[in-house]
Amino acid sequence: MRTAGEIIEDILKKDGVSQSDLAKMMDTDRRAIYQLLRKFQDIKYSKFAEILDKLGYEITINKK
């Protein structure tokens, strides 16, 4: 199972958005984004949803 950080990193690559760009969208600095995505920590659902929203995505849940 992929982590939230891995999913966000994949979206950034796919959309050509840098961590610096995301930091500006989130009104924070690049270091905070780097730490959020790289450290072995869980991202809270609310933070994950906020980041996805800023990138123009939403979370959907589908039954297997």
Describe the structure.
The protein is globular and about 35 Å long. With 64 residues, it is an all-alpha fold. The protein is built from four helices and no strands. The protein has helices spanning 4-15, 19-25, 30-38, 45-54. Helix 2 (19-25) packs across helix 3 (30-38). Helix content is 59%, strand content 0%. It has one domain (4-54): lambda repressor-like DNA-binding domains (434 Repressor (Amino-terminal Domain)), CATH 1.10.260. The two termini are 14 Å apart.
How is the topology of this model organized?
Elements: H1 4-15, H2 19-25, H3 30-38, H4 45-54
Helix pairs in contact: 2-3
Protein name: Helix-turn-helix domain protein
Domain HTH cro/C1-type: 8-60
GO molecular function, one term: DNA binding
Number of helices: 4
CATH topology: 434 Repressor (Amino-terminal Domain)
Bulk shape: globular
**Percentage of residues in strands:** under 5%
Q: Rounded to an integer, what's the Rg over CA atoms? A: 12 Å
Task: Profile the largest sheet.
Answer: none
CATH-derived architecture: Orthogonal Bundle
Strand runs, count: 0
The ordered string of helix (H) and strand (E) elements is: HHHH
Low-confidence stretches: none
Q: Structural class, judged by helices and strands?
A: mainly alpha
Give the mean pLDDT. 91
- N- to C-terminal distance: 14 Å
